[in-house]
Structures are given as structure tokens and as C-alpha cells.
Amino acid sequence: MLSMECLRCHSAMVRELFTDREYDAGPGVFVGWRCIICGAILDPVILKHQVAHPKPMAKRARLRAGGVSIQTVSARR
Known about the structure:
Mean pLDDT: 75
Structural class: mainly beta
Distance between the termini: 45 Å
Largest sheet: 4 strands, antiparallel
Helix content: 10-25%
Strand order of the largest sheet: 1-2-3-4
Oligomer: single chain
Order of helices and strands: EEEEHEE
Strand content: 35-45%
Number of helices: 1
Low-confidence stretches: none
Shape: flat
């Protein structure tokens, strides 16, 4: 059995066959990975979108329609 590490919780993921019931030409079947602990799912489409739209880095300005928005992180003690 093939397995890989979950990007969320770092537990084992297993290959699974998924069925997309909303696929226009009938049920679409595809292979993906599901985490055995947190249930996260990865498939070729999800991976493609993650590469095209990487997660924002902390304390990085992002351009918005109304100007510049700056994200800050503050620690409570």
C-alpha cells in the first residue's frame, strides 16, 4: 500500500478512489489521497490550485481593490 505524509497534520495518507457525482458526463472517477487522521484530501486539481495560488506569507502586504492591506500577527500573553 502506498502512503505519503499529510500536509496539515503530518500523519499518513492513503490512496483512495473518489467519485464526483456532479461531473457533467456522469460520475467522474479520480484517484486522490486522504489523510487517515484529519481527513484532508489531495488530488491533482487541488495540488494544481495550491501551486498556482500559494499560501500568503505572514506580515506580507497584499494588494486589494481599495488599496494596500497589511496583515499583522500579535501574540497574546
